[in-house]
């Protein structure tokens, strides 16, 4: 029962809004990378593979945050941490080696094209997981 | 029989282009009304409840927007194909993708009995105009 209550907590209140924003990014990143890969993969293989990786992590984080049980929370924390690393590394690379990124990805320039939400989202996700961790009230 | 673009057909595309633009602007307006409504609910700490008259109207507005988005998708595909725009694939993905936002968002919002539900509607109704705007940029070749 306690497990159920914890699971509910991750997806209630602001957690529900967070899952919604994650869902939008999962859709955006997936759609973008599918179009890039089937339409013009040879133009920028590095950038497009990274787009696809980003899409997978967004999908995993969305699902895991929505489920919220113990395993999912671990999975969510893992994918949020990797997303954060991804957006920082790709963001940095896109400025340092723009030639690798002839076309923008979700993570280019730290997510500038998406109002910098990509860099905020994993931070909020990790913060929310910390706040709703089992054994902490309210 | 040879197929050529006649003046009448061009007139049709220009005319329906204006209709789509008007439709997009109207849908954006309705979405922003829903956003304001949902923000008021968040601020006044009222949950989203299907038993309330106001929330039933809110859902009606969302259904209307979704219907408009379906019409927009049909007109968009016809126009995009007719004009042979270069990024038809991206344009098509936007036209279809935007249809998912409101049904999924509303479902996710209604399952919550806290203020979070209204927050989800804010996210959904900000996303739709953002996607519609991008869609117009893609159509214009951006």
Automatic annotation (TrEMBL), chain A:
Q: Is Transmembrane one of the keywords?
A: yes
Segments spanning the bilayer are 17-38, 44-68, 75-101, 113-129
Q: Which domain of life is it from?
A: Bacteria
Q: Does the keyword Transmembrane helix apply?
A: yes
What keywords are annotated for this sequence in UniProt? Membrane, Transmembrane, Transmembrane helix
Question: What is the recorded name of this protein?
Answer: Integral membrane protein
Q: Which organism is it from?
A: Desertihabitans brevis
Taxon lineage: Bacteria, Bacillati, Actinomycetota, Actinomycetes, Propionibacteriales
